[in-house]
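FOLDING PROBLEM:
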Amino acid sequence: MELATRRFPTRTTAQIEAFLRCMDVALLRDRLAKRGMGDALVSDDDVLCAYLTRDECSDISPSPFFDERFYRAMYPDMAAFDGRRAGSAFAHFVFYGLEEGRWPCETLFFVARSFAEPLAPIETLDAAKYLELNLSARDFVAAFPVLGAKEHFNRYGRFLHLIVDEPVPVPESDPYAFLTEMEHQFDPIWYADRYLDGDSSPAHHRDPFGHYLSIGVARSYSPNDWFEEEWYRAFYPDVLEALPGDFLCGFHHYLATGRAERRIPKFDLETALENQLPGVTKPELITRATGLRRRFYKDGLRASRRPDLGGPGTVWFLLPHLNPDIAFGGYRACFELMRALRAAGIDVAIYCTQAVNANKTYFLWRQRSESLREAFEDIIVLSRDEDHRIGIGPRDRIVAYTVMDLPMARDLSAWTQFDRPYLLAQEYEPIFFEHSSTRALTDESYDVPHYPIINSAYLHEYFRTHGVGIFGNAQEPIEGRDFAVFEHRINRLPSQTVASMASRNRRVLALYARPEKHAARNLFEMALIALQNLCRAGVFGTEWSFVGLGALSDLDPIELGRGHRLVVYKRTSEEEYIDLVGSLDIGLSLMYAPHPGVVAFEFATTGALVVTNTYENRTAEELRVLCENIVPCEPTLGDLERAILEAVDRVHDYESRVRHTLAPERNEWNEIFSSEFVERVFGADVQAP
């Protein structure tokens, strides 16, 4: 009493006593304990002291009928009340709110506002009968003993259409209609076991639903075992925002709209995760394990041996697919190697390790190269399920297109006079995968003894410095005997002249645009963000246009800012590609991988300034020495933007651009895979790999 008097010095003794009688100390102790303050609160005085003096208790209510958050939001004028620290809202309600008929919680307010008109106030009332007929009124008066039954009816009950002595006729438009559904879904036995165990009030046990409405809703109690009120409010912020408002509680919201919206009524880890992150709980790795076993180990391979037929034997290529629509640079190099072998009189056969239906007819129809079509006419192509048709002779050689098929290539090579298969190594393949079993197994496959045919000196340097495959052996490998290196064909595009560059009013920036997931190493997102940042900063004038090349599907133009758009072209024919880059000023081609790709160098053959990124095996200095029109950058957003700005500044130096146009020394496949190359790698006079 003394502490409360000091806390509210302007209140009378009677008011202080009334305030203390309205406090449920047991409830307050429980709520303080949940804040970690329960161990020190031994006596009731300790509980009251903590509540009245600690600022961190200001949002805790000492009554089941009072909601601090609701009251503060509903009546902002109470902020001027003289009790501004802990308990001020509750104290304001007891000292003023009860007298003024202010609503202490959202449940009562929600039901009251459902009625269009309140009942008339009364002068006399049978208090005992009123409280017997209306359990919610009885509990409220018990919680706030300073309020009589008649005062409760006049200040609250008449707005709630409570019964005085006889049932009140329900209007045709029943504002309580939603309660019928709530009561239908309410489980009184479950509710009583969960919340009323130990409650000595017979009335509560007789009417659990009444307890739910009068007390349970304010305490965020759940109505049954399949709906969790607190979880529903927490998981759906829009529901919490709507309370108080259009809905009495989360359960009311669920029955009214949430159920139709397929919202989740109760916490379940899988369901909750899938609601926020679709697909995150799918156990994909179980299925992947089967696929990895088949891919890396080819259980039950049905190939057979065949007798020595003489001659150089057949070179078997293990390809994942024979699909001309995904035959990018690496596949093209493989096909050209096959053509060179056929030109040397060596038979070639293809086994597709992944394709169920390897369609050679469609492959030939899509080919524009007459020499490739001729070379493939008599090549045997087997699909994944036709491994029983594989016949391996002692002079045959096995070439794996991907390191993932090296284990299978090793098993087939064991039937030949060559103790190691070949690998057409055109990338450090683990970079294609996240850190997973697939990546680990792919990395491990390099340990299979093999003869790598390496695409580019850049990749060779990466393999050497990282000890990949044979480069991890104690003995230094010797080129020719242990491995071979070739440089991918750079398509020499029509080069521009000073006059053609100067005569154009339009400036073109072309991005090698690969927005597909499997092409993530081309850093499409980073390039797009950089262009958007620079366009929005006003770097590019109205004379600039932006094109994206290389996508696999039709895409809508992508907004870059200030009226600029990136128009993305689906993968085109070589003729269309040459036409699109015929007046190129800036090329942007990124490759976050050991192999640098070929597009950046193709762009450089036009006289364009080309922005491309460095990697640990290719430095900025090396790229500039190769071609001064190349503007190298680190694979960071900031340095990429810097490099693009540098290219923009150099665009009008036409003479320098023409002078430094890239002119590759060798640019035809028959020069790259020459007869000498074939003889050196596959010839009979070369030491068996």
In short: The mean pLDDT is 88. The chain has four domains: 2-157, 177-276, 292-486, 498-665. DSSP finds 34 helices and 16 strands in the chain. The longest strand covers residues 544-551.
